[in-house]
Amino acid sequence: MSGAAPVPGAAPLAVLGVEQAEAALVEHYTRLVRLAYLVLPPSLGRNRRVLTAHALVQRSLPRGRTAARSAIPAQSRAEAAGETGGAEDPEGVRSTGTDGRTATGAGRDPGYAYVRERVLRQALDAGRPLRRLARPRLAQLPPPLPRVWGLRLFPRSGGADELALDQRLSGLSGPARAAFALRGLELLTDEEVRRLLHAAGAVDTETALAEAADAAEQRIGTADPVELLRSPEFDPCSLQARPTDLLRRRQYGRAALAAAAALLVCGTLLGLPGGWGPDDDADSPYGHNAAVAAALDPARVRRIAPAAWQTSARTDFSVWPARGPLAEDHALLRRALTAWAAPGASVHISATPATPSGPPMGSPQLLYAGTVDAARVVLFHDGLRVVRYAEPAAGGQEVAALDFARADGADAAAAAALVVGRSDGDVRYLTAPWVRSTSVRDLLDPAGPARPLRRDADGVTDPLTSPAMAQDCRSWDTLSVRDDAAVPGRDGGDGGEGTSNDDGSDGSTERLLTDLGELTPARLTSGPPSAPDDVSAPADRAAWARTACLLPAMRSHGVRSVNSWPYARQRLPESNGTATWLCTRAETWRGTGSRVLAQFQAPARTAAPGAVAARAEDTPACGARQSQVLAGVLWKSRGGKWYVLAAGSGRLGSVEVSGGVRGSAPGNLLAVRAREGVQAELYGKAPDGTRVNALR
Fold it and tell me: What is the C-alpha separation between 670 and 574, in angstroms, rounded?
């Protein structure tokens, strides 16, 4: 297609019925609302943008029974390419056209084209200055419907990439945002976008297309900005709800009643009662509630002395001192506390599973306040949670992020570090005051040495690559920390001799922590569930080298620690060497929701990931309460023969397999000849005859 030639296959349309437009609106409602949300000006705020986007779509039907044809057919370039190169398989999965993009589902529907043009015109009008004529455009006025009283609605928060894209789009003009969305979501060609923008009332379409192309070409970290458009961050049909200012709303209601009574009695309103307008405590989102206002007072934030951890009976986040060059910046602390107590529509909120995101329970403890990369960061602790507040360092305080993570019941190992910042695929940690030194170990290079990692005077590390943000598994950098030998309650005793290390160090305990996309890094251990130990032995590091690439299955799940236990070794049939069976268990901060993977690691010359034989969630298997585990795989020997292999922990009396293949063996190991693709049921028996089911 070139120039202004008609789009091939577009249905001729002289008159469009309102029923046809309504059917298109209902069928593609989610797409239309997302398009309106992206085009609307960010200055409206996320809550009003959501409601306005829904309102624009719902009032985009023709006013009469018929409407004129849309200026642009709904067919996209991917669909036009589909006539020559795209196809749809019998399963219903669409293939890609000649440009590599997947065709959308609106096809050549003229009703959709008409409604889309109306939505786009209204969204662009909403960003133009309010006209001073007697009849301003409807899109420039607050939408009467839909309306939600007492709630703020906004899309689900994404990650750092989505926040960066939102900030990038806020810097574009309305037509440029429209061009970006039409090219990325509707897959229209530049000529189609130009014609549609012109039909919607945009003037300088060439500039809009150039801005949209520049925004699409500049990647955000490792992410494609166009792909990020499809994330929940920009989906106004998948929403989170937060209450408005409840106490102030109550004050408004009381003030309105008092004003009405005054009008009835006096016939005139002499003044507004206290609390209706701005008051002495206007900065506090809870007005005159003295208890909550005290909790939000920066001067009352708890600050721990630098040496308190050395004499405390507890060694956790509660004895971290207040650090950071902005620890005395009361304006920053007030903004952070206010956002925590009553987050506005522009505050992006994330929380680990089962972590409450409500206001602080009394005055919280300050852990850190300072500038990290391009953000001002504040870390709080309230006994149950660690809370991270971040705002852009170069102005733009109307956009902020608030992250919550559970941290109750922490010990010296679990409280060794916190994530203080993420940027461009890297992560920075704030380390505990008892951490003596930090370095970086690559789990995929078990024989490699640890690389030094510098920290500043406040304990903030230099950036290291975050495996949680990587797109592949070519390396897995972990934070290696060494504890001070005098840490109370550390492994190896209370102030006694430390654990020696394979590199002949000074006896301080080395721990490995990994980023799994949360505020609290997860501690990595090896050994039986009853006595897990830090990953220090060469055999443990070799096993973890083939386990690391399985860790993404445990990402963003509130994980506190991950233990990998080699529970069995099995000599393979036909002299194929010896395989190792491992059980990898992730424990969470909340106690429930554990994740368990049973691995089969066949002999290999490389550190290839082990095969996942079984997985389960929220089970006591392979844990301190129940260490029993049983799993099996269908394995092919080098000679081309297939076997069912199974292994259980050492307390089994026998292992049996039934179904497509039958067999049994005493003890905890089984190897039975089988056919390719066979389905079988595996179970074991304890010495007392109790049945033990396989992990699933």
Answer: 14
